């Protein structure tokens, strides 16, 4: 029995998506949803995780985000796009991450619709989940009050 590539990929990435969605992070699946989310953030703060299938997403990024979300001070909104899966939504999200080049995984914090803090892949790869959580907690405490 042949399985379609799309079906295979959906099954493969499902647990990677759930690492974030079970934390209450909402997936943005279309460019329109990305635009709506950024627009909502103009009156608050928004965490955007660019998810990925790579090992540093699994070992450092997603666990770091999970730990950071245990902080007392949190963003108003939490969202994720999945690089390589919802390509149009990810491309739209990356428009708001300028001047940074495309990077996945990566983590962005917006305040009042403007990018306030950004963690690129190279800042994830060689750091522990605890270090990433500490970085995010510092940003939450600075920008989310």
Automatic annotation (TrEMBL):
Source organism, top-level taxon: Bacteria
One Pfam family recorded for the sequence: Disulph_isomer
Family classification: Belongs to the bacilliredoxin family.
PANTHER family named in the record: BACILLIREDOXIN BRXA (PTHR40052:SF2), UPF0403 PROTEIN YQIW-RELATED (PTHR40052)
Stated name of the protein: UPF0403 protein
Protein's organism: Paenibacillus marchantiophytorum
